[in-house]
Amino acid sequence: MMHRCRIAILGMLLASEFAWSHDPVFGQGPHTLFRGGVELQAGTLLQEAGTRREQEYGLALTYGITSDWTVGIEIPFLDITEAGQSFTGRGEIALRTKYRVWRKDSLGLQESVAVSVAIVPGGTGDDEFADKGSSDAFLGASYGYEGRKWYRWASVGYRANGENDAGLKKGDLFRIDLVGGIRFRPTGYLEPDWVWMLELNGEYMDRARQNGAELADTGGDLWFASPGLMWTYRNYAIKTGVQIPIAKNQNGSQEAVDYRFKLEFEGHF
After folding, report:
1. Could you tell me the CATH number of the domain that includes residue 95?
2. pLDDT value at residue 165
3. How far, CA to CA in Å, does 86 sit from each of 55, 165, 192?
4. β-strands 168-169, 213-214: how paired?
């Protein structure tokens, strides 16, 4: 039972990692679509921690209600291996929205601030991953500075997790992300464009609870240094990066994260 609980915790947290387009690889950003725009996104996220291997394949669809307001849906497919056991199936569906509350344009520069909300209803995934009876929510805020050469992003986010029908409550998660980026050679719209990024990602997770009792081997703090790359050509983009752990303070006996790798493909129509 405890093994299944830990698998569920890992799967649900892994399933929430995909970002919106033209934002940092692992952090949040304030970018929104144009009115009536559609974004199709496919990607994979791989994490290894000791003998545990978790991989998510995600599909997402986003629509621009206005140039400042987007809504979307994300469907993850999970493959988790731990202690010689493998679990494969569809994870929980996430419903997302983002609203840009402030934007300032100047010559060769755009600054903006946005808030993001996501809801993860329980019971929408396969049995091994379905969080029956639990509804989770995420609230975040992000700032972006996008120039012809330099980029800066900063964001915070909080995920509040509910209790499922089995009495399991995953630990709430607080995130902070600081990102810098550079375009070494400014390019035009008809040319391929490269932006190199370096992120600092922090995660503070509460202990999970089973029927009100804390689970000792859950929760803690993690910090990552994350080099990444965003390549764009017209209305298509590829983003990739790797999270490298630089500090940790985890509770109890937990496998340390060795790395996380992400690769995403996006198209705007």
Report:
1. 2.40.160.40
2. 85
3. 11, 23, 40
4. unpaired
Which token pair is 35? Answer: 């009115």
- pLDDT tens by residue, 139-198: 999 999 999 999 999 999 999 999 988 899 999 999 999 999 999 998 877 889 999 999
d(CA 121, CA 93): 7
| Full residue range of the structural domain in which residue 46 is found | 2-268
- Walk across the sheet containing 168-169 and list its strands: 168-169, 209-210, 213-214
Instruction: Read off the tokens for 100.
Output: 């840009």
What are the counts of helices (DSSP H) followed by strands (DSSP E) for the chain? 1, 16
Regions of the chain where pLDDT drops below 50: 1-5, 7-20
- C-alpha 256: how far from chain center: 19
**Structural domain tally of the chain?**
1
User: Which DSSP string do the residues of 10-77 spell out, in sequence order?
Assistant: HHHHHTT----TTS-SSS-----PPTT-EEEEEEEEEEEETTEEEEEEEEEEEEESSSSEEEEEEEEE
Residue among 19, 122, 125 nearest 78 (CA): 125
Structure tokens at 3: 């093994």
User: Quick one: which H or E segment has residue 2?
Assistant: helix 2-14
Name the DSSP letter for residue 4. Answer: H
Whole-model pTM over 0.70: yes
